[in-house]
Amino acid sequence: MVENPRVAIAGVILESNRFAPVAGPHDFESLYVLRGQAILDDARAAAPKMAQEAAAFIRAMDATGPWAPVPVLLAASHPAGLVDQALFDGYCAEIVAGLRAALADGPLDAVYIANHGGMAATVDPDPDGTLVRTVREAVGPDCRIVVTLDLHGNIGDDLVDNADIVVGYRTNPHVDMVERGEEAALSLRLALAGRADPKTAFVRLPLTPASINLLTAAGPYGEIIMTGQRRQAELAGAILNVSIFGGFVFSDTPVNGLAIVVTARSDRKAAQALAVELAEFVWAERERYQRALTSLNDAVTLAVCTDGPPVIFSDSGDNPGGGGTGRTTELLAALYDADAEDVLIGSFYDPPLAQDAHAAGVGGRFRAHFNRHPGEACDVPFEADAEVIALHDGNVTGRLGLFAGRALTLGPSAAIRMNGITAVVISDRCQTADPMFFEMFGLDIGKARTVAVKSRGHFRAGFRPWFAPDQVYEVDTDGLTTPVLTRLDFRGLPRPVFPLDQDTVWSPPDFA
Questions:
Q1: Is there a single domain that holds both residue 169 and residue 282?
Q2: Is the pTM for the entire model greater than 0.85?
Q3: In whole angstroms, what separates CA 338 from the centre of its chain?
Q4: Would you give the end-to-end CA distance of the chain in angstroms?
Q5: Which has the closest alpha carbon to 189: 7, 48, 384?
Q6: How far is CA 335 from CA 78, 419, 467, in A?
């Protein structure tokens, strides 16, 4: 039993959309890059910047006994494109250097890695796996490695072969990050106490659903998550964790595919058997991982109809939480042209427009030019006369769902009214998953007839107090995160793969 374990802390979080612009230093620095003591200070703050599971891991370790944390580097970007290879290599080298410096002072008992799992680089298709493998090479075979991941992670051999414990989210929208960070800490404590000798196994399927098909409250993905948890409970003496990763199809890599990762207490064969059992369950249900969208015309009809209950729209093609630009205007233009009333829409990533609104001041009127500078082909310019309703510096704390309790910096922000539509404009790209995007301006969500958000699914948790599931519509819009996968030029997926290739076949692996 290790009495006062030395545990290093590191990680690089990014969900990569191959079709989005390359992620560079600014993308990480605009969210967080924490080093050394700043990691511990942030984790223990009232409103941490870092991912909630990372903060929860540190706090759980604090609460469950003595330990000697060795904070190295935690870096994160909002979802974006492929990470610049040199930038990733630099982060990786910095982590290795920090581990070697720590090892010079004595052995490390464990390394905690807080990653997303859906990262891809301009050269390396699996940097998450590369990081875990590189850490293993630095610390040797006897040091425990525990990894937390988003359930949209793309899982490869390098990650599973080199991690002792893998813990993935179980909810989508993501609301269980704190619990998963705590679980990772408690599982590590078990291993360090000699009460478990974790062994991992995984099965990856040729199945790459669009993210809208990976909700967990209902549907096939929610059912397999529940089945995995039931089987884990039934096999509690043998199984430590079951994590089922839906993957992130827009990463477009050879390691894409829904994956089941099982961590056994000591018996790898038990992990392998359960992974195969769950994979067979998923494959039998693969046809259900397809979902119809609401057409733009039908969405406009719902918005202008005053007979039914209020509605909320997902601008599904432009989700900044999946690498979308946050700049498309297709849905805005359609609602504006239809003279829709009592509409809240956001958030548009458009720093020049936010600057114009701040220059005009509250109550000021000006010509709002969306996308005045060229961007992606989907970022079509739009302009209209506007009035500035409210201004904000963009420093906020999330209230519900994905961002609850987290400090966010959105940059100079504005709420502007164009006829019956009030639009939120921000200066740092972020998905509208939390009501505070509107509430920071004093806007009353409960008085809106229609709310339209640039978010794929996480808004469901943030806006649940106002909108029941039958009031939620995923609108078929253009953009880098369109759920209509046939519109995208995939080049890295392991073909054939379902649903793109409807005749895909699969057989369980033979672990013998």
A1: yes
A2: yes
A3: 33
A4: 33
A5: 7
A6: 28, 10, 20
Burial per residue of 493-512, b for 16 or more beta-carbon CB atoms within 10 angstroms, e otherwise: beeebbbbeeebebeeeeee
Q: What is the spatial distance between Cα 267 and Cα 240, in angstroms, rounded to a whole number?
A: 10
pLDDT per residue as tens digits for the range 160-196 = 999 999 999 999 999 999 999 999 999 999 999 999 9
DSSP alpha helix (H) spans, 64-156: 85-104, 127-139
In a shared domain, residues 372 and 252: no
Whether the per-residue pLDDT at 478 is higher than 90: the answer is yes
Q: Are residues 275 and 372 in the same domain?
A: no
| Cα–Cα distance for residue pair 371/374, rounded to 1 Å | 7
Query: Are both 302 and 283 inside the same structural domain?
Result: no
Could you say which DSSP state residue 137 is in?
A: H
Domain contains 491:
no
CA distance 53 to 168: 10
> Which amino acid is located at 319 in the chain?
N
Task: State residue 204 phi and psi, 5-degree precision.
Answer: -110, 130
Q: What is the mean pLDDT of residues 26-37?
A: 97
3-state SS, one letter per residue, for 277-326: HHHHHHHHCHHHCCCCCECHHHHHHHHHCCCCCCEEEEECCCCHHHCCCC
* Mean pLDDT, the chain, whole residue set: 97
In the DSSP assignment, the letter for residue 213 is G
Please give the torsion angle defined by the CA atoms of residues 151, 157, 159 and 160, in that order, rounded to the nearest 10 degrees: 80
As a whole number of angstroms, the distance between CA 15 and CA 322 comes to 7
User: Does residue 494 form part of some domain?
Assistant: no
Query: Tokens 């494959």 appear where?
Result: 283
Number of domains in the chain: 2
